[in-house]
Amino acid sequence: MPPDPAARIRPLPSAAAAYLSHLKIEKGLSANTLSAYERDLREFLFWLDRQRVDWEGCRRRHLQQFLLHLQQRGLKDNSLARHQASLRGWFRFLRLDRLRKDNPAEGLESPRRQRILPKALSQDEMRRVLAGLESSPNAARRQQLRLRDRALLELAYASGFRVSELAGLRLDGLDLEMGLARVHGKGGKERLTPVGRAALAAVRQYLEQARGPLLAGRASPYLFPGAAGRRLSRQAIWKRIRAYGEQAGLRRKLSPHMFRHSFATHMLEGGADLRSLQMMLGHADISTTQMYTHVATRRLQQVYRRHHPRA
């Protein structure tokens, strides 16, 4: 359930604005993460105001009552945990910045996170999706768009990039000779990721035959520019990927994140080690990468039951 819209309108107190500025400048958090923290703080402060309590007088019981309020609204464990992380971080900042003498959020327990196994395509499903991009329509512009989309999807599967990383990939961030791509991930962290032969071939064909005509004389630093040379939006990438999933006859709706999950799952199935996969995916913590072992194990169990005569 979304927060009360009135919570978005009320101005933030200077102490909350200072915390968000601290997260942006000193912690280097992404715009999406900052937006989530701001929404959480606004909702908490709005709730406090309705209880006739200000942030300076807030006590642990108020935090517990607020979390109970969120639970009663039906928030899932992951959302509750994020709200608690936002509150713990803010009150820790207030204490360190001497805006409060105590920290009522210290030791506040997080709810148990619900592990959601990522959805991944089988290798056969992925081949069907990519095969649908090989035949180009007759119309020149449609052919150019198909070449762009083929390069985009091949690169998504070859690299495991997040959709925001694909959209922001710069032309000079891809080394076709070395087979490497350089992207800026969460928190602005830069990483290099290998790119396979099929993706490199698709990108070369796109660069040679389609990118220039699609730009129509405009300049753009992005590998996949959209209108007026700006980066292709995440929504546009999402829409194109979903359309090709439907074209391939998939029963489930295809998303950019499923390409990332499929990349990771298929790498593990092929024998990749977790540390290497962690570096390629840009995970700060290897525990995030470890969730893919559950997906790979589940796939092995399905293969075993399908093929063993006494399974």
What would your notes on this structure say?
There is one protein chain. This protein is mostly helical. The protein has 2 domains: 6-96, DNA polymerase, domain 1, CATH 1.10.150; 123-307, Intergrase catalytic core (hpI Integrase, Chain A). Helix content is 58%, strand content 4%. It contains 14 helices and 3 strands. Strands 1-2-3 form a 3-stranded antiparallel beta sheet. Helix 12 crosses helix 14. The longest helix has 22 residues, at 286-307. The mean pLDDT is 86.
Helix content: 55-70%
Number of strands: 3
Shape: globular
Question: Strand sequence of the main sheet, in spatial order?
Answer: 1-2-3
Write a concise synopsis of the structure shown.
This protein is mostly helical.
Features:
DNA polymerase, domain 1; 3-stranded antiparallel beta sheet
Layout of strands and helices, then pairs:
Elements: H1 6-9, H2 14-25, H3 31-50, H4 60-72, H5 77-96, H6 123-131, H7 140-159, H8 163-168, E1 174-175, E2 180-184, E3 190-194, H9 197-209, H10 211-215, H11 234-247, H12 256-269, H13 274-281, H14 286-307
Antiparallel strand pairs: 1-2, 2-3
Helix pairs in contact: 2-3, 3-5, 4-5, 7-9, 7-12, 12-14, 13-14
